[in-house]
Amino acid sequence: MSLEYLRSIRIGYIPYSPDLTAPSDRRRFVYFAKANNLPFSIYNPSSRYDIVIAASSRADPQTFRDLPASTKCVLDFIDSYLVEPALTPRSLLRGVVRYMQRRSSKLYLQYKDAYTSLIRDADVVICSSPEQASLISPHANAVVPIPDSHLSECFNVKSDYCLSSTLNIAWEGQIATLPAFLRVATYLSSLSDFPPVLFHVVTDRYRPSFYGWSLFSHDTTVSLAKSGIDFAFYPWSIENINNLPLLCDLAIVPVDTANPMHCFKPENRINLFWRLGLPVVASATESHVRAMSQAGFDLTASSYDEWSSKIQLLTSNPAILRAHSLSCHGHVVGSFPEAFFSRQWVSALMLALRAA
User: Do 167-335 and 2-149+336-353 have the same topology in CATH?
Assistant: First the structure.
């Protein structure tokens, strides 16, 4: 009934990317809409809508205030900007650049204030994890955590559990998280009692521009080569992601625990690897510990010794690797089917429509 009702109303969407190809479009609202034949249109200020769903990185803080009182507002807020340090270059420049590019109708010297404004004006805020919801709740009318969906992007599943003299370890992520990976990868590569490791790295080759400015641009392969690790580099693509379970024994998800924004990242990358059948060792952040506990695993690391010992545990023999692979894949498939994402999105949108 709720889904049928949503199909009958006018939905406007402010996307993460103009062509809807950004991962946060494909894996979030756009995935839900396509999976359920839900009509929507890209938001146009001159059109009228029953509900507007806005990507936090693209919405002008004034957007919700300019809508008619009868239009309901949903904010998809997937990054932990509320804990971003105030004096980082990106934090200091974000408000100025967005104002100059007319993405914000007001100049915010601290753009965290803009995000707080959007959160307060939204009828419902959707985030990625319970940990993010705890940050947002004090400022929001209602919060619904919904993780990313990878159902349409994962089509290969690990099936070969043979181990060779070289460990093949997968890593996927944004370039901003590369330093945390390199610290762990360099440590593992330096161990005399650890097998040789080949790291299979899937990411962008060049750092994306910052609101159109090519700040800190560099070639990712240069950083990888300078680190001294043995690696194979693959530009980010769905095809290259799906090659990882064919090439690798396991995956790692290191996090810079000194960076508050990174500490509040959700478990989306763990779920991605699990859907590919790749066991994961991950930094012991709150979301990672929760996700592992729910799956029945103890594969988080809070020290270099734990990184090496838990990887060695997984790869001590093929039977253990196979058991973890089957278990992690079964957990994510059973816990996050298509019906789960549809139920969560329908619940969030209906909650907004019922808001006073």
Answer: yes
pLDDT for 331 equals: 98
Cα–Cα distance measured from residue 78 to residue 100, given in angstroms and rounded to the nearest whole number: 24
The set of residues, in sequence order, having a beta carbon less than 8 Å from that of 19 and lying 6+ positions away, is none
Residue spans per domain, the chain: 2-149+336-353, 167-335
Is the separation of the CB atoms in 143 and 133 below 8 Å?
yes
Q: Using an 8 Å Cβ cutoff, are 173 and 181 in contact?
A: yes
CB 147 within 8 A of CB 268: yes
Residue 108, token pair as written in the block = 């915010």
**CATH code for the domain defined by 167-335:** 3.40.50.2000
> Mind listing the pLDDT tens digit for each residue in 77-122?
998 888 877 767 777 777 777 778 777 778 777 778 888 999 999 9
Q: Tell me the whole-structure pTM to 2 decimals.
A: 0.93
The CATH fold assigned to 2-149+336-353 is Rossmann fold (3.40.50)
